[in-house]
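Appendix B. One record, verbatim.
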Amino acid sequence: MGWRKVRQATRLAKVTLGLCALGVLLHAYTAVFKSNGGTPSAGGTLFLLGLLLWSCLPYALWAAVAVVRHQPGLAVGGAVATLAFDFYMHYSVFVAPSGSTAALGLLFAPLWNLLLFGPLGAALSWSLLRLFGQPASQGS
């Protein structure tokens, strides 16, 4: 493999990890500053911790795809799509809620990211990298 391909794969992996860190920060901000749990209790704290971990799971997946599986071309697209949907969900829940059940979106967003938006972003990224003749992974 040429140095150019290695440098590009390393660059994509770094971008992916940066996007994942941004997503984790968004969810940490939501859990710490935007949660309205009322009186602090063990149950409320455990729920917020579980929600934080659940919300960060798609980012852990894309970081692992980039670093462990050496597929940064796939991971960057998945991370971009996941982060875009999370920003949309944050906006629709905290900035412009459409109703009293808008916050339920925070519970289901990680599932949508894992099953739909992340894989679609990864497929789009892979397709674009293939179309323009650049490697989608180090192993290609």
